[in-house]
Design brief:
Blueprint (H helix, E strand, L loop, with lengths): L4 E2 L4 H9 L2 H11 L5 H8 L3 H13 L3 E6 L7 E6 L1 H4 L2 H14 L23 E2 L5 E2 L14 E2 L3
Antiparallel strand pairs: 1-6, 2-3, 4-5
């Protein structure tokens, strides 16, 4: 993709600065599956305690997760981690990564998880559509245009 403008303020790069690390994606995977507590996230991801603590703190700082206090009877107060709207907006990205892995990286037994529509049970699929409703099958049907924040290349 050769674009006629600089990408020093690239949205992809900025997003990767926030989420572009294995443990972050695994924490988000668990949050989307309804896991909210530190110990459960650690058990499900296998993340070292310090790594998980740092990832959760970063996701809270970035506004992708929020802390919600809870207390088990006879225990001290702790925090659960719940997705914010900003965090939930990453769901299509995680599904796209999963579909890629299912297609190209799963073993002979097939994918470990299959996503289905809760109401009818049909498999979940992802599509690109333009604002006029036309399906876009891939990058050859897309033209990068300078956005309002584009910095034009100098000659």
């Amino acid at each position: 993709m050769n674009v006629p403008f600089r990408v020093s303020n690239c949205s992809i790069e900025r997003t990767l600065d926030v989420v572009g690390e294995k443990w972050t994606f695994l924490v988000l995977r668990e949050a989307f599956s309804g896991v909210r507590r530190f110990a459960d996230m650690q058990a499900m991801t296998g993340a070292p305690r310090q790594v998980l603590s740092a990832r959760l703190a970063r996701l809270v700082d970035e506004g992708l997760l929020r802390k919600v206090p809870y207390r088990e009877p006879g225990q001290r107060q702790r925090d659960e981690y719940r997705l914010t709207e900003k965090g939930r907006d990453l769901y299509p990205l995680l599904v796209a990564l999963m579909h890629f892995g299912d297609k190209y990286l799963s073993d002979d037994a097939g994918p470990a998880v299959e996503l289905t529509h809760r109401d009818c049970g049909a498999p979940i699929e992802q599509y690109f559509r333009c604002a006029d409703g036309h399906e876009v099958s891939g990058p050859r049907e897309v033209t990068p245009e300078p956005g309002s924040g584009a910095e034009l290349k100098s000659a």
